Amino acid sequence: MDDIFNALILLSNFVIVPGMAYGSQLAIGALGVTLVFGILRFSNFAHGDTMAFGTMATILFTWLLQGWGVSIKPLPTALLALPFGIACTVALLLLTDRWIYRFYRRQRAAPIVFLIASVGVMFILNGLVRFIIGPNDQRFADGERFIMKAREFKRLTGLSEGVAFKTSQGLTILTALIVAIVLFWFLNRTRAGKSMRAYSDNEDLALLSGINPERVVLITWTITAALATIAGVLYGLDKSFKPFTYFQLLLPIFASAIVGGLGNPLGAIAGGFVVAFSEVTITYAYRKFLAYAIPGDWAPEGLVQLLSTDYKFAVSFLILVLVLLLRPTGIFGGRTA
Amino acid sequence: MSFLSGDNMTGGYGGADILHDCTIGVEKGEIAVIVGPNGAGKSTAMKAVFGMLNIHQGAVHLDGADITALSPQDRVAKGMSFVPQNQNVFTSLSVEENLEMGAFTRKDDFSGTLAQVFDLFPILKEKRRQPAGELSGGQRQQVAVGRALMTQPKVLMLDEPTAGVSPIVMDELFDRIIEVAQSGVAILMVEQNARQALNIADKGYVLVQGRNRYTDTGAALLANPDVRRAFLGG
Prior knowledge:
The complex is a heterodimer.
Chain A: H1 2-40, H2 47-67, H3 78-106, H4 111-133, E1 146-148, H5 150-157, E2 165-166, H6 167-189, H7 191-201, H8 203-208, H9 213-238, H10 243-248, H11 250-260, H12 265-283, H13 287-293, H14 312-326
Antiparallel strand pairs in A: 1-2
Helix pairs in contact in A: 1-6, 1-9, 1-11, 1-12, 1-13, 2-3, 2-4, 2-9, 3-4, 3-9, 6-7, 6-9, 7-9, 11-12, 11-14, 12-14
Chain B: E1 4-12, E2 19-26, E3 31-35, H1 42-50, E4 54-62, E5 65-66, H2 72-77, E6 80-83, H3 95-102, H4 111-120, H5 122-126, H6 137-149, E7 155-159, H7 167-182, E8 186-190, H8 194-200, E9 203-208, E10 211-216, H9 218-223, H10 225-231
Parallel strand pairs in B: 3-8, 3-9, 6-7, 7-8
Antiparallel strand pairs in B: 1-2, 1-4, 4-5, 9-10
Helix pairs in contact in B: 3-6
C-alpha cells in the first residue's frame, strides 16, 4: 500500500505541483497575448520581452527595497516591488503604443504589419533589458523558500517519498487564481470591461455606440502590462530571471493562447495548463514512479523518459502545429490564428 | 426644412460620385422610406446623412443646425442613431449587454429606457442573458433596433431592417417601428421590400442611380401607376 502512496507522492512532487505552477505562469502570460489579439487584433511578439522588462523593473525595485532593509518575511520582497514594476511596464507599453502602434492604427494597417512592428519592439526591448540588467541569471527570491519541505513531509507521513511545496509555487497558483477572477470580473461586470469586449467583437458597431477606441486601447495595454509583469515575476521567483529564457517563453505562451483559442481568455487559461502538463509529463523520467507502481522486480532499467528536458520546447511546438492543423480556432473556439 | 434633412447631397466613397444632388428628409414622429432598385444608392444616401461618407456638395441639417462636418460619433451625441444592415449586434455579448453598450454614452440611469425596450420587444427580456449571436435573424434585428434606441435618439436610421427575415417577422418588426415613430422619433429607413415599407411610410423617396426619381407620401407613391409599374412589380 505504501508503494502506491509513494508513487503518487512522487508524481505530485515532480509533475503535478510543478505543472500547476508552470501552467499558472503560462496562463497569465497567455491571457496578455490573447487580450492584445482580441482587442488590438495582432499577435504581440514582444510579449515575452515585455515580461522580461517588467520582471527586470521589479527586480531593481526589489534590490532597492532590500537595500533599505524593507522586508515582508516570510513572503518575498519582490511582491512589494511588483506594483512599481507594473507601473514601469504600463508606462513602457503606453509609450510603445504612442510611438509605434498608434501610427499603424491610424493607417488601419493589416494585422501582419502590426505583428512585424511588434517583432521590432521585441528586439528593442530585448536589447534594453540586457543593457540595463545584463544577460545573466538573476536570483531575487528571498523570504521563506518552502511552504512544505520534502523532509518534513516524510517525517509527518512516514513515507519514503516527500512532496516539496515551494513558496513561489504556492504564490504562483494563488496569484493566478486571483488574477483570473479579477480579470473575468472586470471583463464581464464593469462598463469598461464590457466596452472592451464589445470593441473586440465588432469595432464598427462599438464606434457607432460611442465607445472611444483610444480609451479601450489604453485600458488593454494597462492590463497587458500588469499581466506580463505578474507572469514574469512569478516565473522568475519560481526559477530564475534570465532575459533569454523569457524570450523563449514566447513559444509556450503562444501555444497556450492558440490551443485555447486566440482572443478567448478562458481558453488562454486552459491552454496554459494543457501546454504545461504536456511539457512536464512528456519530459519526466518515470523509472522511479514505475518502480513503486509495478510489483516485484519488473521495474524498468531505463529512465522511461519520453523526451529529454532539453527538447521541452519541441512539445509546445508540436502542440502548436497539431492545433493549427486540426483545429485552428482552438479548443474553446477563438479566431483563426 | 425637415427636422432631419440631407439636401442636394453629391458624393461617394472616394471614387466616382454615387449620389447626385440627392435630397432626403424626415419629420419628428414620421417614417420616411428610401426605396429603389439595387445599386440605386439607397444605403449610400443613408450613410451620407449619417456622415459615413464625404459629400462635397449639399448639406445635412438636424433640427435647424448644420451637422455636415460632424463625424458619425458626434452625430450620435446629437441624437441620431444608426442600425447598420449587417453585423449590427455584438454577437458574443448577451442581449442585455448589447443594450447596455447602446447606452454607453449616457451617464444617467438608463434602466427606464431598458424597460421601455423590453416592453417594445418582450422576447428580448426573456433572452436577456443569452449571447446575441445565438438568436434568430428576427430577434437579432430586435436587439439591433433596441441597442439603437438606448440613447433615446431623436432620429432612428435603419438600413434594411427586414433583410433576411420571414414575412411574419417583417410585419411584426414594422409594427414595432410604427410604435417607435408614434413616440415622436423620426425614422429614416432603407427597404428592399418596397411595397410593404411604403405602406407604413409617411414619406417615400424613390432613388434611381443616386438621384431622386419620385418623392411623395407613401400612399401617393403606392397609387402612382408609373412607380407601381417600374418599381413595385405592377
